[in-house]
């Protein structure tokens, strides 16, 4: 074999190896776990609590250890109770119980309150991140699944810092570093900056997504709070534009219709 033939064969082998490596690295990465992607709409059956003097509606249905609806007032600490009282207005318009609601001022709703609204959300997955796009307020949330830890020495934010991991077909997300400006629902239910929210996302069948939510905030509550959210797949839907500032003038009118007069 001539020297130039040996060189040609070596060059072809090197070229083939390079093409193979390029082909391997150019393949799109796939996320582990289940496919949670799609547009999802909340099932009202697990969204709204009954309207009572202690619960003006549009609340989470908190569950006890047996999975039954929590009875009685929420287990607030003394700090939480003072925060709760401060969130409720004391002016002459006593029927407008939520007129100082940060949501009515077009601030982000925070986690987990963003799940209370009857608007769709879209989930987009990649190898190292799960992205949630909420139509309400057009909030965007990133849950990083690439093994990173929580950010250190960062300022608290409205939606918090979310990291996640896959346990089989279940995405387990943990959110911390939230400011204390958001509420847990209408009526002024508070939380502190110590709040940690743990969510378990599981697609129980093709058209149903369940989110198990646990709140741990020892500064505001004497025991963790637990609830579940059910979402239904809407394959033909798209997330629409939502501009809170265009609608905020209607919030007080809506509030007057749904509020329960205070005694």
Oligomer: single chain
Order of strands side by side in the largest beta sheet? 1-2-3-4-5-6-7-8-9
- C-alpha-based Rg, rounded: 24 Å
Sheet having the most strands: 9 strands, mixed, barrel
How do the SSEs run, as a string of H and E?
A: HEHEEEEEEEEHH
Task: Please indicate the percent range of residues in DSSP E strands (runs of 2 or more).
Answer: 15-25%
Amino- and carboxy-terminal Cα gap? 102 Å
Low-confidence stretches: 9-30, 46-57
Task: Count every helix, treating DSSP H or I runs of 4 or more residues as helices.
Answer: 4
Can you describe this structure?
The chain has helices at residues 3-25, 78-87, 244-247, 251-258; strands at 38-42, 121-125, 129-134, 140-144, 161-167, 170-176, 196-205, 208-216, 225-233. By secondary structure, it is an alpha+beta fold. The protein has a 9-stranded mixed β-barrel with strand order 1-2-3-4-5-6-7-8-9. A hairpin with an 8-residue loop joins β8 and β9 (225-233). The radius of gyration is 24 Å and the shape is globular.
Jot down its keywords:
alpha+beta, 263 residues, single chain, 2 domains
